[in-house]
Sequence to fold (666 residues):
Amino acid sequence: MNLINELRRRHVFRAIAWYAAAAWVLIQVVSTVAPQFGLPDWVVRAVIIAAVAGFPIAALLAWSFDLTRAGVKLTEVSPEVLPSATPARGILSLLLAVVAGALLGIAAVTGWQALEAPSPRPGIAVLAFDTLGQESNRVLAGGLHEAVLDELAHISGLRVIARTSVLRFTEERPDVRELRRILDVPFVLEGSVMREGEQLRVHAQLIDVASNAHVWSESYDRAATDIFGVQTALARDIAKQLHITLLPDEVMKAEIPPTVVPAAYELLLTGKAEFTQYNFNGEYALLQSAITAIDQALALDPEFALAHAEKAQMEITLWWRHRQAGANTAAARERALLAATEAIRLEPDLGEAHRALGLYYYWGLLDYSTAERELNRARELLPNDSISISILGWVRRRQGRFDEAVDLLRLAYRLNPAENFGRADYVLLLVDTGRYARAKAEVTDMLARFPEDHLLNFISAWLDFCHIGETREMLEAADAGFDNVQWENFARWLAARYDGRFDDALAIVQASPGDEFGFFQEPRKLALAQSYFEAGDLARAAETANEMFDVIRAEILADPAGLGVHKGLANAYLYAGRPDDAREAAQAHLDETPLELSAIEYYGARFETAMTYAALGDTEAALELLNITQRGPLHECGNALRRDPAFASLRGDPRFEELAALSDWK
Fold:
């Protein structure tokens, strides 16, 4: 039987063509519509996979069944070749089927690439407002900047760069075309604020950064108490100029002031501006001042839902980052829950409240499923909020959903590109999951925008080391100079250890300033004890390690249920010459980081403990843990394993060499 004629007789080619056309239309529609409704990426992926998987099924059904006026019937088997069939018609039918399949393939590839492509939403960076030399208006300008960013951030059709990114350009503002390169946006909004008595004047201008042309400008004269009116009018005008249609919910939200007490709103904006500065430089006093301003706002208006939400985020931040400081922060976690709950009671659809509650469940209770629910709701309500996206990415890391975490952290980076640790979170997860080439490409692009970033320079040098196994890139990066002497010292220290120059490594730590050292800002004394230990001066290693025990134990007592609180204790015992205590502490480190509690800490703890066991000479225990990490989703690059002196006792063991090869650059 002529196969092509039989396929044509059974209408297989026609069915394939109709299926391919319908699937192409479906993929195009879903790829276009899903982002507008905030649907997750997996929805588009699922449609693409289903369409491609259904292609052979459609062909099989067409072969087996006929659709007739009497209904669906089994296709009768042809006893002979159709006499009307000709080679030309057969070739034409085959060609049509190939074209149909190609169209479906193109649609699938195009739809999939759309997930990885930058968001089609027009992007805008709102620069800090100028005060026209009036220093007394500085706080007002900072608050208005926060307010305008918040208003724009609620517009789903716009991509708004986070304030922590644009704050870097407050003192030294580069050319707008340079801002386009750094922040990857086509538009920049500049403005000025002037208050004289009871009158407020705000001038704003929108700039097309590609041409450096002013495409729109406007001045707003309002009563000094009408900051909300200014931000609402400004946001609407920007949306109009960028041809963005506001959704009904966005219009309704813009019309309702968050409080009826103007002084409370101004205090809220002051607190938010100080909290942003705190996140920028980590000064504890700024966090306390921000909370005080929010409390004052709530004293003026106890029904101020947005103030309750901002208080909740500040309080949980106080607890998480400063909970070892003493009794002043002990009750902050409970205050965070009360504030977030009250905010949602007052305004159930307040995105900031759901974000704060998600952060509370994530940091405060390690309840990832509830945190996920709240953060997804926050993302729906705050489509431009890089904080919610970042937190959800961190949740995904702890859940072991690393591919999703990569996508989320990349999205957060695009919304907040100038935030150092946001960039590092994204790139380091690429490194930890073995996506070295992609990580290198991303780092190279980031360094073109932020060449002074010591974190990126270090990661770039580290990736080169993982690729070729030589330390010269780390040394060259250190010679070029980081903007942080500790990072320069750390790069030299690592290179010296990997090269077996242990006396040089010791001298580097001895000369390093400050109480912290290394990539994760570990206690400098612990690095010093390690350097003495690796240089063979066991007496000085023990003396230095003994100085650490009180500090480590105090940290454990301050947060006994915390993840990884025993992390440094095992190595301190190791360097102190107390191997049995080191093994006991190492086991405690493993016990406190189960997989269901946190995937990223689970794999990290097993790798760290493998290093401890290897240094203790416990070969089988070390290999057992390395087998978990190197065959798991997170692992150390092969060249780092081979060169790290902690694993010197395992070199030459074929099992170790096999594990190291698993994570070589591919």
Notes: Residues 87-116 form the longest helix (30 residues).
